[in-house]
Design a protein that fits this description.
Blueprint: E1 5-14, E2 24-32, E3 37-42, H1 46-52, H2 58-72, H3 79-82, H4 86-93, E4 101-103, E5 107-111, H5 114-125
Antiparallel strand pairs: 1-2, 1-4, 1-5, 2-3
C-alpha cells in the first residue's frame, strides 16, 4: 500500500471589491510537512471576474497571483517571505488578511499522490 501523506490545503480567493466581500476561487495551495511538498495551482476566469468588477486591473491580479506562487515555491525573487522554511511560507500564505487575495481556512486530508490531489482539488473547487 502506498504511503499516505497528511496534507493541508486552502482555496485561494480573489476579492475584487473588498467592501462587498464577494470572491472568486482562483487557486489551491496544498502543503505536506512530512513530504516536504508545497504546490500552488491558479487559474483566473477573466470573463467571470469582469462580472464582479468590470474595470479590474488584470495585470495587477496576475502579478499578485504570480507573487503568491513564487512565495509558496520559495523563489529567490520572492523576497524575505519566500526564503522562509516551507511550513512558515504556508502559514504566511494562509494567514487571515483583508486584501484582494485571500485564502480559505486550511483543511486537512490524506493522500498517497499529492500532485494528483492538488489537481483534483483545483478541478473541483476552482474550475
Amino acid at each position: 500500500m502506498p504511503e499516505q501523506h497528511l496534507y493541508e490545503y486552502a482555496v485561494v480567493r480573489l476579492v475584487p471589491v473588498l467592501a462587498r466581500e464577494e470572491f472568486l476561487n482562483v487557486g489551491i495551495v496544498l502543503f505536506s510537512k512530512h513530504a516536504r511538498f508545497i504546490r500552488v495551482v491558479t487559474g483566473l476566469n477573466e470573463e467571470r471576474l469582469r462580472c464582479f468588477h468590470g474595470d479590474v486591473d488584470l495585470d495587477e491580479v496576475h502579478a499578485n497571483l504570480d507573487s503568491f506562487t513564487r512565495i509558496a515555491h520559495g523563489d529567490p525573487q520572492a523576497g524575505p517571505i519566500g526564503q522562509l522554511d516551507l511550513p512558515s511560507r504556508f502559514r504566511w500564505l494562509t494567514a487571515v488578511r483583508s486584501s484582494a487575495l485571500q485564502t480559505s481556512r486550511p483543511h486537512p486530508g490524506l493522500s498517497s499522490d499529492l500532485e494528483a490531489t492538488v489537481q483534483r482539488l483545483f478541478k473541483e473547487l476552482v474550475l
